Amino acid sequence: MQAIVVTAHGGPEVLELRDEPAPEAGPGQVLVGIETAGVNYRDVYERVGGGDAPSAPPFVAGIEGAGTVQAVGAGVETVAAGDRVAWVGGQGSYAEQLALDADKVVPVPEGVSCEDAAAVLLQGITAQYLATSTYPVAEGDTVVVHAAAGGVGLLLTQIVKLRGAHVIATTSTPEKAELARAAGADEVIGYDDLRDDTGAAVVYDGVGQATFDASLAALRPRGTMVLYGAASGQPDPVAPATLAAGSLFLTRPGLAAYTADRAELLARADAVFGWMAAGKLDVRIGGRYALADARRAQEELEARRSTGKLVLQVA
């Protein structure tokens, strides 16, 4: 099969299209023919050697995708050949086939394409747990969403609006500002325009170093700072005393902790797919690339030139 291999930790040039041995479904696993793979900033982290990257190259990139089950291993009873499934924890998803544990896949419901499933699952679940669990947004809350035209940002803005909040979105260009408004943002400002007296109940920050200090300053007393990514680099260490003046909360959530078991994974996926089916959650695919063009997709993502979700069209 063909796959995108991270040959060494480094820039996009380390991504190579290679012929790799076809996987087989072991006990408790399913073998999936991949139709679409999601491109995430997490994939950049693994390429450069940070985040949840495998310990050492070479390895096949990516963790998210959707496709059709081709075979099941011994002991698998919840999934059958021919089922359409999607996943957010399958290392090696930039490929034509993937073998992964059956308890990591979720069924793709009727009316949802594999492309849309791959485009929404990881970022949709992330936005869902950020707005409902990390800080449960309440009606009337003032909420700041950084990078609101990005993959998570557009979904998060919509979900926060569903919960009745007032959304202040940050973007970097007029075009991205229009996308944030279309997603429901009440105010759209530049990254440098966030005010100290914003009085936000929560700031959702996937940018990191460039926005972190201003995000803390924008919180109301007992407000919550949610750092869920670091596209601009990791913030400097924070002394606990920094949080004392406003009795602020600071958290760094991660997907694994919010999908700790299969029941939780399915519940969050069902919520996301349910919003889509009801027409309450619009998924914007900002770019479609062939598998061989994975390098270019990551370049666009890393340079923050993209909007919405980028996907690889594998089959």
Question: Can you tell me about this structure?
Answer:
The protein is an alpha/beta fold and 315 residues long. The protein has two domains: 2-121 and 260-313, Medium-chain alcohol dehydrogenases, catalytic domain (Quinone Oxidoreductase, Chain A, domain 1), CATH 3.90.180; 139-252, 3-Layer(aba) Sandwich (Rossmann fold). The protein has eight helices and 16 strands. The strands form three sheets. Strands 3, 5, 6, 7, 8, 15 and 16 form a seven-stranded mixed β-sheet that branches. A six-stranded parallel β-sheet has the order 11-10-9-12-13-14. A three-stranded antiparallel β-sheet has the order 2-1-4, with no helix packed on it. Helix 8 (294-302) links the parallel strand 15 and strand 16. Helix 2 crosses helix 3 and helix 2 packs across helix 7. The termini are close together.
Rg computed from alpha carbons, rounded to a whole number of angstroms: 19 Å
* CATH fold-level topology of the largest domain: Quinone Oxidoreductase, Chain A, domain 1
Shape: globular
Total individual domains? 2
Structural class: alpha/beta
The major beta sheet can be summarized as: 7 strands, mixed
Mean pLDDT: 96
Compute the number of strand runs. Answer: 16
Q: How much of the polypeptide forms β-strand, as a percent range?
A: 25-35%
- By DSSP (H or I, 4+ residues per run), the number of helices equals 8
CATH class of the largest domain reads: Alpha Beta
What is the distance, rounded to the nearest whole angstrom, between the alpha carbons of the first and last residues? 12 Å
Second CATH tier, the architecture of the largest domain? Alpha-Beta Complex
Estimated helix fraction: 25-40%
